[in-house]
Amino acid sequence: MKKTVVQISPSILSADFGCIAQAIQDIQDAGADMVHLDVMDGQFVPNISFGPKMVADVRARTRLPLDVHLMIVEPKRYIAEFAKAGADIITIHFEACQNVADTLQAIRDCGKKAGVVIKPSTDVHALKNVLDLCDMVLLMSVEPGFSGQKFLPQTMDRLVALKQMIGSRDILIEVDGGINLENASELQKRGANILVVGNTFFGSTQKAQTVACLKG
Ligand code: DX5
Ligand code: ZN
User: Is 123 a residue of the active site?
Assistant: First the structure.
């Protein structure tokens, strides 16, 4: 049986915003699998990044899947706009929605893959009732808001618990924050399917080699 390799999703939050086209080219040339776009509203998280226009501009430059992580209050308000901009996977925070199930359904209604994400302090079991509406679960391994933070070690146990709860369901597990060459293989071993990398990717001078090593 073919070994399933983990997929790598570089986050352009760590790129030079003055050279986004080059960042997309670098992601493609390095053999990464998708592009992670961190959308922040300055309310759900203390940082502000970019909105649907960035997603559309990136869409125009690549055929790689666009993995859009919405760190915004009541993301349901913007699902249609991000779908129209060309997102393939739209991930919404469990903590940011009045009605998580409705929000996930809204993403699916736009024909996109729906993901739910939890902060490090949210119990993974809180997701139990919405799993059947998810194509992906994203586990934050840092507090959302900024790239370049230190990986939280409790993520490993949380990942095991999440994997167990998902069971035989067809749901991908993505992990985001502080991922590097030291912790990537442990994450893969515990069931992660997609690894988001900001500084580890954009801080590397040998990006293709970094992606290959992260895949293990
Ligand atoms: C944090 C973002 C992450 C972050 C990853 O809120 O969701 O995607 O940019 O960056 P690194 O890998 O540097 O922690
Ligand atoms: Zn992210």
Answer: no
Per-residue b or e along 3-34, where b marks 16 or more CB atoms closer than 10 Å to that residue's CB: eeebbbbbbbbbbeeeebeebbebbeebebbb
Q: Which residue among 33, 38, 41, 67 is the active-site one? A: 38
Distance 89 CA to ligand 2 centre (A): 12
| Sheet arrangement for strand 113-118 | 7-10, 194-197, 172-176, 136-140, 113-118, 89-93, 66-71, 35-40
Q: Is 38 a catalytic residue?
A: yes
Q: Is the CB of 197 under 6 A from ligand 1?
A: yes
Q: What is d(CA 151, CA 195) in angstroms, rounded to the nearest whole number?
A: 12
Over residues 47-85, the pLDDT tens digits come to 999 999 999 999 999 999 999 999 999 999 999 999 999
Pocket test for ligand 1, best of 9, 71, 89, 142 (most atoms within 8 A of CB): 142
